Amino acid sequence: MPATLLDVLMEQRESSGKGLQTMTRVCLMGRLAAGTTAPSFSSWCEKALLPSGNSVTGLLVLLPEGWFQTIEGPAADIPPFLQALRHCSLLRSTTVLACQEDVRTRYFPHWSSAQAVVVRSNYAEIDADGLPKLIADTVVAMLKIGKKLTADRTSPASAAKLVASWEKHFADFMPSNERLAQLHELEGLPSLAEFLDIFESPVDVVVQSEEIWPPERPVVY
């Protein structure tokens, strides 16, 4: 039996490592509660991700004044971790920077965490129009790190060492202490609680009429 076009497309996706299941990717930032250490929060995240197996991958970057984290995985596996993070007593605040749905390709080979002190003096003067670019630069920087971790076939332990030596590998784009502080100063970014209230709310589709056929006749001008 000759192969169909669908067979060819599915074979191409499988050979390229891209599955048919779409994924969700979320980039967050936050601050630790008073008395919380970076290793304790890292351990908490690792335990919270255990129920999902290895389906959720990503990177937690722990800086002196807070943290950035990007996670990606099947759409059904992301919300349970976000809900646990929402109620985590180790955190003072959690903010969502970006959410991408229908993601086809992973950028992170596994979930890992790393501590770093990143002094780059890249505090930027911005107005309302510059905010999206500031956030996008931060989100893309995390993806670039993930791409490097994947290319180098790192383990979680070697990934932590790679991020810790950021000056050698990620000097041009590593999210900095200053960038984290600046983003926390900005107003209008949704907290994780606000994001989840929208993300998990049912879609209310308003139908004007139960009659769908025949379609309305076009208006003739």
From TrEMBL:
Pfam families for the chain: TEX47
Domain BLUF: 23-115
Superkingdom of the organism of origin: Eukaryota
SUPFAM superfamilies, per database record: Acylphosphatase/BLUF domain-like (SSF54975)
Gene Ontology molecular function, alphabetical: blue light photoreceptor activity; FAD binding
Gene3D superfamilies the record matches: 3.30.70.100
Protein name (Swiss-Prot/TrEMBL): Protein c7orf62 like protein
Species this protein is from: Chrysochromulina tobinii
